[in-house]
Amino acid sequence: MKTSITERSPPSSRPADTAPARGAETKFRVLSALSFSHFLNDMTQSTILAIYPLLKGNFDLSFAQVGLVSMVYQLTASMMQPLVGRYTDRHPLPYSLSFGMGATLLGLLVLAYAGNFSTLLVAAALVGTGSAVFHPEASRIARMAAGGRHGLAQSIFQVGGNAGSAAGPLIAAGLVIPQGQRSVAWLALAALVGIVLLQRIGRWYKKAQALRPASSRAASTAAILPPHQVRLAIVVLLVLIFSKYFYLASLTNYYTFYLMDRFAVTMQSAQLHLFVFLLAAAAGTLLGGPIGDRIGRKRVIWFSILGVAPFTLALPHLDLAWTTAFTVIIGFVIASAFSAILVFAQELMPGKIGAVSGLFFGFAFGMGGLGAAVLGMVADARGIEYVYAICAYLPLLGLLTALLPDLPHRRHASAPASGPIPDSAITAP
Residue 172 has what DSSP assignment? Predict the structure, then answer.
């Protein structure tokens, strides 16, 4: 049964990214469709991360080679995302999301039938291309559908991705590892569902963009701070992204190896522990945005980055039960940072939503990929436990949050950038 998504918003001549709107409507059905698409996208990608032990055994890979596979995937996404976002700020491409998911689908099929290490790298690059197209454009659409509640919108969008990341290890443990590498091809069906849904979202995006007042587009480019303050704030936010994603690289890529090496757990048990961590991260993501809408994003950033430091510092010295408990806390707390950081950056540079989203998603992917490669080499040289001993100090970079400016805090602070949207612009399954 198909249900029409009704989207009615009064037209506004005020700046789309900065002015409050009376009666602005948050388009939850659009956000839900985006979130589910994000779930499918990141589920397929996290499955690749979760089967690294299988690939390591099949191809006799070193930790450094495992890190290289991750680096190719994430750096491909990192380099392309800012370019995609900057281009689509000027030339919107409503159906580019389906193209991105198509690249992911192709990458999954290549991975399923890869016969050597070089082919694994090709598959990783294709999946990275899919992410590069998906994330900046989907983030832009989430902002258009926010009705001024930008933190909430980004959290809804992000929680789908984090939930998908959490599902990846379960699929790996229940399907791919027992059935073997070629069973990855079944994930192409999920990517195909994503393509169909993203076509419908693209239809809504096209109509919403066409109805957006030209005056709003021009006014939205007005800066709220002097350029030097904006540049400093962007640098600080990028450093915080570095601390978050470099640390997360240690968990998403090597947590299973750490558990198997230190506590002698089975591969399936390690995958379940990874799932619990990623599930906690998904829950934290959902809370970070709306809390930032209410109390201010700078406070959320303080708590999310610096607040996790006591737990990361203790983690290398704990037994299995406490390791599981502390990684749940770490995942829950640190995951709330990204939505707050992204929306903070978007508010610093209104009118450049695609470029900002592409820069921050790309940098996050890049740091994740670089972290995977560097930490893989550290693990080969000094052992997997040493990785967590040195990464424990990264959250202390959260002290730099003190350098961020205090932006004016307004609840539901913006009108939807799209203006009035027709009732039948998108249908949901």
Answer: I
